[in-house]
Design a protein that fits this description.
By secondary structure, the chain is mostly helical. It has 27 helices and no strands. The longest helix is centred in the middle third of the chain and has 50 residues. The protein is globular. The protein binds urea (URE). Belongs to the sodium:solute symporter (SSF) (TC 2.A.21) family.
Length: 673
């Protein structure tokens, strides 16, 4: 291993320091939220679901943040390093379409189970205990794999750049996050995600402008083209047209693309984190949030990897660029190496902060997701069905901390057995792919057959493992180990068998023995008794200060609260059916554009990008990144201007008339809502 670019203290400083900073920040946000708004995380609905009241910009920002893993930055750059310009495209497009298509599931969630806390509650209500337990295995396995990838990617980079102990990084990363999740719950986690996403875009744009505009090592798309063309001549890529880095015609790039699409279907559809954002969303704008979030996210891996992944190739031979081994690439280190070569310690530090923010915000989504599954699907379903509000909240908090420790342990175990982030990334579809179709059918199709879907998930799981191992053995002379099993064809076989068998068994059996489900049972999940609002409507305290503020009550309510009656209005089945149709048409159209119309003609024509082509490609990436930043950084501020005004007014009042700014709801509304 080469000398770390940064001192060890920088690693601890970022991991512990930024972790503590965000914990303090979260305490502040939570205190502000409790004092100046209608929402308090002391309520379990608010803790896990943000009272189902969050607006689309903030949900989109939360989706971007939860979907920006360590792999989004590191693996995307690694595939750019290995396959050239096709890698960032397949990474970005191949993981965006699932979020877009999830908009359909999100619309159906609001239509068919509007008050559920978790996707497993829906499975349990529709198909009973066996299905609940089988799909819980898939759900929790998804969370463990995603969290392990976060910890592996995060710790490998921190260790590489600073020399910090991997063991310490594996535990300190999730524990720091656990503190702020326990303090803040879902809404504050979304607010923290928002701040992370803002900084993330700022750092990504800094790297983009360094590479394509200011760096004296590269500095322009033209120079990048020249360096990539030279790299293609010096070390042609097997399977690429003319061995070039500048073509979409890449056989291994395409194989990665297929694996990527399958694995990401598995991790979006079965990860409570993405369901949870749909659950937290206002019903009328859920579809918008997912379409916006998906499109905004695309820019992150595409532009980042087109920048630092390609820069790592272009800078080969530069005295500041370290030589990368196959293991370094699998660990996702090309981006870190390029950042250090371009900007020295400043580049390494910026990458470290970027990665840490990505890892912590995705990790916070995983922690609160697993906490919800353990609370509602394990504790409340099987251990204490009559659990009180207080017990649920306590278990939710305990589950966050327990899962943080489990994440650290899982990351460490994978690290010691030699499984890297890149290996896990291509493996995820092998064991998780079979659940994709059964779960999608459970929430969207009244004819989905219970036993067909359960057996599809199990049969696909077995088929995936068998196909993966048999292919590994066949292609490697009977040798099965971490290295041989991580090959492109080996992983492709496992991924295809898993998702294919799961889908075929579920669909065919449902066509032969169709169910006729009327959704009444799922709509009844957690249904509030008539007239109960979903917000934490705080009845005015009896203290004299609050009485004095009676006059300001109405304005306070006009801020960002979301009453039960507003929610009922937004749950109008006609409007939600329309939203589902819109989600279907738009997400399928975007799927066709991103996965078929753009890359396939470029692939089959074996086109090699010239200077103009590369410049246009990079320009699209930069423009998309700016539009994304506007959507998930500026737009959430705009849509919440009233609430921000309400909070600012409260703080102003508190400053000038001590105690007068506190939020109090209209007592008349509180008792009748
Ligand atoms: N979230 C992903 N696949 O980067």
């Amino acid at each position: 291993m080469s000398e770390p670019v940064l001192p060890q203290g920088a690693g601890y400083g970022v991991v512990v320091g930024i972790g503590l900073f965000f914990s303090a920040f979260m305490l502040l946000i939570t205190a502000i939220q409790a004092r100046y708004t209608a929402f308090s995380p002391k309520n379990s609905e608010e803790f896990t679901s943000a009272s189902r009241s969050v607006k689309p910009g903030l949900i989109a920002s939360g989706i971007v943040s939860a979907w920006t893993w360590a792999a989004t930055l590191l693996q995307s750059s690694a595939v750019a390093y290995k396959f050239g310009i096709s890698g960032p495209w397949w990474y970005g497009a191949g993981a965006t379409v699932q979020v877009l298509l999830f908009a359909m599931l999100a619309a159906k969630l609001k239509l068919n189970a509007p008050y559920a806390h978790t996707w497993l509650e829906i499975v349990g209500a529709r198909w009973g205990k066996t299905a609940h337990l089988v799909f819980m295995f898939f759900g929790l396995a998804t969370n463990i794999i995603v969290s392990s990838m976060l910890i592996l990617g995060g710790s490998a980079t921190v260790t590489d750049l600073t020399g910090m102990s991997t063991l310490a990084a594996c535990f300190l990363i999730p524990l720091g996050v656990a503190i702020y999740v326990v303090v803040g719950g879902m809404r504050s986690t979304l607010l923290c995600d928002y701040t992370h996403t803002t900084v993330l875009f700022a750092i990504i744009l800094t790297f983009v402008f360094t590479v394509y505009s200011t760096s004296d090592k590269i500095g322009s798309p033209r120079k990048m083209h020249e360096l990539l063309a030279a790299a293609s001549t010096a070390a042609p890529i097997a399977g690429n047209a003319h061995g070039s880095y500048l073509t979409i015609r890449s056989k291994n790039g395409l194989i990665f693309g297929v694996i990527n699409i399958i694995g990401n279907f598995a991790t979006v559809f079965q990860d409570q984190a993405y369901w949870q954002r749909a659950i937290a969303s206002r019903p009328a704008s859920t579809v918008k949030a997912y379409l916006l979030g998906g499109l905004a996210w695309f820019a992150i891996p595409f532009t980042f990897a087109t920048t630092l992944g390609l820069a790592a190739v272009a800078l080969r031979g530069d005295p500041d660029m370290r030589v990368l081994s196959a293991a370094d690439v699998s660990a996702g280190l090309p981006a870190a190496a390029a950042a250090s070569a371009l900007l020295g310690q400043a580049g390494a530090a910026a990458l470290l902060v970027l990665l840490f923010l990505a890892v912590t915000s995705a990790c916070s989504a995983e922690l609160i997701a697993v906490s919800s599954l353990l609370t509602y699907d394990v504790y409340k379903t099987y251990i204490n069905p009559k659990a009180t509000e207080e017990q649920i909240l306590r278990v939710g908090h305990g589950a966050v901390v327990a899962y943080a420790v489990i994440c650290g342990l899982a990351g460490l175990i994978f690290f010691y057995i030699g499984v890297s982030m890149g290996w896990l990334y291509t493996f995820m579809g092998v064991i998780l792919g079979s659940g994709v179709a059964p779960i999608a059918l459970c929430i969207t199709w009244s004819k989905a057959n219970k036993w067909g879907c359960i057996s599809g998930a199990i049969a696909g799981f077995v088929a995936g493992i068998v196909a993966w191992l048999v292919t590994t053995s066949t292609l490697n002379g009977g040798v099965i180990n971490v290295v041989t099993s991580g090959g492109d064809f080996e992983m492709l076989a496992g991924n295809l068998a898993s998702i294919g068998v799961g889908a075929i068994v579920a669909v065919v059996s449902s066509l032969i023995w169709p169910d006729d489900f009327d959704w009444e049972t799922t709509r009844a999940i957690n249904m509030p008794s008539r007239g109960t609002g979903k917000t934490d409507e705080k009845v005015a305290d009896s203290d004299s200060d609050d009485k004095k503020r009676a006059a300001s009550v109405k304005e306070s309510v006009a801020g960002d609260s979301f009453s039960g009656s507003e929610e009922e209005d937004e749950l109008d089945p006609v409007a939600l059916t329309k939203a589902f149709k819109f989600a279907t048409y738009s997400s399928l159209a975007l799927f066709v554009v991103l996965i078929l119309l753009i890359p396939l003609p470029l692939f089959f024509s074996s086109h090699i990008f010239g200077v103009g082509g590369l410049t246009g490609w990079v320009a699209v990436g930069i423009a998309w990144t700016f539009l994304s930043a506007i959507s998930v950084v500026i737009y959430p501020l705009y849509e919440s201007r009233q609430a921000l005004g309400q909070i600012a007014t409260g703080i102003y009042k508190d400053i000038f008339t001590k105690g007068s700014g506190k939020f109090v709801t209209n007592t008349a509304q509180a008792t009748t809502a």
